[in-house]
Design the sequence.
């Protein structure tokens, strides 16, 4: 194939692409026009280096667009505001937070270029270009700078958070750009349960001891999450802190020392918080509902870790590894004392926990275990104390038969579950951004 | 106080300490100790003569070193954490001062390698997690080992290099492919070849080609972290079972448990 043929083929492909994507409402004249525009666009996006033409990953914007709109970081304060991000957005359609600009802007694969070619046709419309850059600003750089709603080929994406109050909750800190990290303090208006969630996220980040590239992977994975999980026991923590301000002070102090990586003080803060938890009978670690998305991304993160990092994680968070047989036996005993209303939820949660520890985060693999655990719980529930004591050995044998994975499997799955909890944590994104900024500033 | 029948050669005491450390990190229960007694029969491996000689010579020259070894052994048998911590610190200081490693290297025996996976299954997830947590700094990353070894082997004498190459390629094979009855031949051969290439290069070639060599090392040692961790735990079990002093350590630990049990039963 000579060069002329190749050019013709390219033009033809671009015409087909634009026809397919713009729909059938274009007239033949419109199609030809589109093809010629794409061809012109292609010419403009080709630069000559040492005589040989080279495709650049994206074309320069038209002269009609103000320069400030297409700078890499048009607003200097945008990155500073990154921790204010709220990562769960409400979308109607297929768009996902953080992934949007990858899908229809000039990025990685041929498919993206294909989409880009189509956008090239449209970029002459100033309004479109402006909006497109707006998208870029919002999702890629700022993530929550302000809200935007618009129409996009039958879809209605929006950057509005599912819960607008959560934006107020995300006002993490007094964020001085000259001292972005050291002066971070928990804002008084932030709910204690949200500060507790931040602490959970920061502890996981500290325990993982991620490299810069791994931290980037984590941020990317968080960007790809469609929804953050809900913390089911936030109200319990909030009301307890309202009654006992000392708990709130301890949670805030731990947060401040975690953010400023004051390790010695952090250990003392954790000890104080543990004592308060014992005293007031509460758990400062919220339970976050883990989505399928979070599970997928947790596996992505896990695959980037080294064995040494997992071992270090064990050294700092060894408590995350339980014995599934022991948990099941305790569950079989306790389920006899929960109310009928609570039993279904108790049974579901316990079955999922055992199944994840035993077989991992893949729902298809652990479904039979979930079913069997629920059966065992249903069998144990009507038993009296004497009957349960008499059948305890049988249950024990059944539990041991059910747990097929060995110790290393359980450890691996426990770490993956912990990472999934981290990924689902609504404050994980903001805290990861804080860590990233610390790394960038060398703090 | 050393018990009757206890090892008295400093190197034997050091070996026994190694076995007791693992049992302590695993928090092995009495039934597990009994199962290990059965499993270790005939599984003892060989120790590196140079390491043994160095320990014996260091402890003979300095009586205090020998006493620290004996105290640490007693602490580990009795499970006295405060005492163990203090004696471990003293031994660590002595190691630094005398430049002798009091943890002799042990060659994994074939029976030990064959039994390793079964022994891992003896312990609960919490026990293995405790072992990993206690030894987190010793957990080996095959990529890290091989990349470091490529530079370390430079400038070695040929005889030293051959021994070093053998050790590294065996370790990499075990960490990447798991502990079978013998190290994975394919990985062993490819690792040894890569090491030889690095060893034979001229300094200027080595500097120029180091990134390439490191990439090859990364390709060779590509293994999922969970799998590498599994292989490391298996390797720890091989080391435990191959320890020539394991049977003595197990006997002493189980008899101490019996003594304390009977003592507590006798007490009013």
Sequence:
């Amino acid at each position: 194939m000579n060069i002329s043929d190749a050019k013709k083929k390219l033009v033809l492909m671009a015409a087909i692409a634009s026809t397919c994507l713009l729909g059938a409402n274009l007239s033949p004249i419109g199609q030809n026009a589109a093809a010629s525009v794409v061809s012109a666009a292609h010419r403009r996006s080709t630069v000559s280096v040492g005589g040989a033409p080279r495709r650049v990953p994206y074309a320069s914007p038209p002269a009609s667009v103000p320069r400030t709109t297409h700078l890499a970081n048009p607003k200097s304060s945008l990155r500073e505001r990154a921790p204010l991000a709220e990562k769960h957005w409400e979308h109607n359609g297929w768009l996902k937070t953080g992934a949007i600009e990858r899908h229809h802007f000039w990025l990685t694969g041929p498919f993206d270029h294909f989409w880009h070619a189509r956008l090239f046709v449209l970029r002459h419309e100033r309004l479109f270009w402006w909006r497109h850059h707006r998208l870029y600003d919002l999702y890629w750089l700022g993530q929550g700078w302000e809200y935007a709603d618009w129409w996009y080929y039958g879809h209605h994406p929006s950057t509005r958070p599912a819960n607008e109050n959560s934006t107020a909750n995300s006002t993490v800190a007094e964020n001085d750009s000259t001292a972005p990290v050291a002066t971070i303090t928990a804002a008084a208006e932030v709910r204690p349960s949200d500060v507790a969630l931040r602490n959970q996220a920061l502890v996981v980040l500290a325990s993982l001891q991620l490299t810069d590239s791994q931290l980037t992977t984590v941020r990317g994975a968080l960007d790809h999450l469609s929804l953050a999980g809900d913390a089911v026991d936030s109200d319990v923590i909030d009301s307890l802190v309202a009654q006992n301000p000392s708990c709130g002070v301890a949670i805030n102090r731990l947060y401040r020392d975690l953010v400023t990586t004051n390790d010695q003080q952090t250990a003392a803060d954790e000890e104080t918080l543990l004592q308060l938890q014992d005293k007031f009978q509460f758990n400062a670690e919220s339970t976050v509902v883990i989505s399928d998305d979070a599970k997928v991304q947790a596996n992505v993160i896990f695959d980037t870790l080294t064995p040494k990092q997992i071992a270090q994680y064990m050294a700092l968070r060894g408590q995350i590894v339980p014995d599934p047989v022991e948990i099941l036996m305790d569950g079989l005993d306790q389920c006899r004392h929960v109310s009928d209303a609570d039993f279904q939820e108790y049974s579901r949660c316990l079955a999922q926990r055992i199944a994840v520890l035993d077989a991992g985060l893949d729902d298809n693999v652990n479904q039979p275990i979930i079913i069997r655990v629920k059966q065992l719980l249903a069998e144990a529930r009507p038993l009296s104390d004497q009957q349960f004591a008499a059948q305890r050995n049988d249950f024990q044998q059944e539990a041991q038969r059910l747990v097929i994975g060995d110790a290393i499997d359980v450890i691996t799955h426990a770490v993956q579950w912990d990472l999934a909890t981290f990924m689902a944590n609504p404050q994980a994104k903001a805290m990861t951004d804080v860590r990233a900024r610390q790394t960038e500033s060398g703090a | 106080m050393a018990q009757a029948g206890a090892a008295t050669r400093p190197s034997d005491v050091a070996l026994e300490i190694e076995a007791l450390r693992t049992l302590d990190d695993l928090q092995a229960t009495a039934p597990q100790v009994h199962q290990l007694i059965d499993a270790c029969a005939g599984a003892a491996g060989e120790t590196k003569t140079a390491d043994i000689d160095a320990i014996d010579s260091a402890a003979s020259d300095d009586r205090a070193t020998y006493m620290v070894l004996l105290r640490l052994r007693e602490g580990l048998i009795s499970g006295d954490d405060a005492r163990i911590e203090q004696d471990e610190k003293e031994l660590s200081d002595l190691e630094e001062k005398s430049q002798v490693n009091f943890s002799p290297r042990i060659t994994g025996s074939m029976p030990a390698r064959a039994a390793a996976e079964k022994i891992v299954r003896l312990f609960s997830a919490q026990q293995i997690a405790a072992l990993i947590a206690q030894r987190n700094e010793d957990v080996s990353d095959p990529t890290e080992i091989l990349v470091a070894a490529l530079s370390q082997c430079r400038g070695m004498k040929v005889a030293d290099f051959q021994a070093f190459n053998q050790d590294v390629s065996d370790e990499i094979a075990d960490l990447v492919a798991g502990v079978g009855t013998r190290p994975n031949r394919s990985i062993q051969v490819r690792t040894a070849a890569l090491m030889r290439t690095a060893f034979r290069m001229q300094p200027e070639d080595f500097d120029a080609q180091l990134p390439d060599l490191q990439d090859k090392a990364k390709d060779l040692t590509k293994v999922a972290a969970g799998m590498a961790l599994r292989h490391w735990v298996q390797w720890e079990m091989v080391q435990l079972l191959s320890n020539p002093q394991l049977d003595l350590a197990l006997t002493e630990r189980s008899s101490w448990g019996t003594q304390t049990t009977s003592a507590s039963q006798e007490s009013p």
In short: Strands of chain B lie at 46-47, 106-107. Chain B has two domains: 1-44+49-103+244-262, 109-242.
